[in-house]
Amino acid sequence: MDKILEVKNLHVDFDTYNGVVHAIRGVDFHLNAGETLAIVGESGSGKSITVRSILQLLAKNGTISQGEVLYHGDDLLQRSDKEMDKLRGNKISMIFQDPMTSLDPTMTIGKQVAEPLLIHNNVSKKDALKRAEEVLRLVGIPNPKARMNDYPHQFSGGQRQRIVIAIAIVNYPEILIADEPTTALDVTVQAQIIDLLKELQQKIGTSIIFITHDLGVVAGIADRVAVMYAGRLVEYGSVNDVFYNPQHPYTWGLLDSMPTLDTSESDRLNSIPGTPPNLLNPPKGDAFAPRNAYAMAIDEEEQPPFFKVSKHHYAATWLLHPDAPKVTPPASILKRYEKFKTLGGNVENV
Asked: According to the lineage, what is the superkingdom (predicted)?
């Protein structure tokens, strides 16, 4: 598959009153044409900062201190603000977390959806509004022609999120970055938004980077998954790899804290003990070591490299070193793997 985006050795720092926060500490990943890559992890792990760096949308105290962001081989970090303005909302678009703050309460929906067209294309206002109506229909807004003149407060939360998606896709971007697009929505609406993004991907052929802390959402949309902790990736692979044969103890913890169809009302969900490290002074070893029941002495001293699990599956944990002691993952993880094998390795059956 063609790589349309590559992030290489990305480092992002923030100057604060307390010192420099090393928020992103050497992140590498790529996005293939037509696929959905999910980046998952706890709040504060660096997911949103990573994708905002792609579009250079960091806060004023944020600095990309090292790395490359290659879009078709062209390093976006070398582009000027003016050049990036031509790219944002056009070739690469972003869906932000909260539709209430993403939409202008003083502008009609039709004008807001049409605005990216008027900015990036030589089209008339009439043609832009016509296209806006078409896109609102595409994302499932009922009676879009009449509702073009309505304001954000006249729509439900789920409808507002659909409108935010309409604004992001109105120029048919090559890459769509979705930053926690379902967080504030109820489960039913979440499923509708996921289905909508998959449907839109089929229709307009965009590639998606999907950011979430909810692993339950990931299974329904992603082709590949990257797990992030304390500003670094710790595991990545296909959905099947990460969900049914996870190798990093942090991934075990995330999955172990997630309910499944077999979870009863009386079952208690497990949580990951402890708290993430202070990135003002990042640990020299594995950042997850203090929370890791399987940590070894080397975890306190050296960051683990990525070990190859299979052709497309890698995990950064010393447990995969040939000399490491063999450990048994949590029972819920073993149960997932056994069920997966029993069902013939087909993710659709699990």
From this structure: Bacteria
Q: Is-contact 260 330, C-beta < 8 A?
A: no
- What is the pLDDT, as a whole number, of residue 349? 42
Of 245, 207, 227, which is closest to residue 34 (Cα–Cα)? 207
pLDDT at 213: 87
Residue 158 and residue 108 share a domain: yes
Residues 59 and 80 in one domain: yes
Residue 261: phi and psi, rounded to 5, are -65, -20
What six digits make up the tokens of 201? Answer: 């991907």
Strands (E), the chain: 3-16, 19-32, 36-40, 62-71, 74-75, 92-95, 175-179, 207-212, 224-229, 232-238, 307-310, 313-315
Nearest one of 93, 45, 18 to 226, comparing CA atoms = 45
Q: Give whole-number Cα distances, 271 to 140, 317, 326, in Å.
A: 37, 20, 23
Vertex 122: Cα angle to 117 and 123 (nearest 5): 65
Q: Which residues of the chain have pLDDT under 70?
A: 1, 99, 259-268, 343-350
3-state secondary structure of 93: strand
- The whole-angstrom distance between residue 347's C-alpha and the CA centroid of its chain comes to 20
Q: What percent of the chain has pLDDT over 70?
A: 94
2: left (phi over 0), alpha (psi -120 to 50) or beta: beta
Which residue, among 79, 74, 36, has the nearest Cα to 56 in the 3D structure? 79
Q: What is the DSSP letter of 88?
A: B
DSSP 118-142: HHHS---HHHHHHHHHHHHHHTT-S
Q: Are residues 162 and 230 in the same domain?
A: no
Domain with residue 301: its CATH number is 3.40.50.300
Closest alpha carbon to 94 in 191, 149, 150, 171: 171
Residue 261's pLDDT is what? 57
Q: CA distances (Å), 214 to each of 40, 257, 321, in order?
A: 7, 10, 29
CA distance 115 to 104: 12
- Which domain does 237 fall in, by range? 226-262+269-349
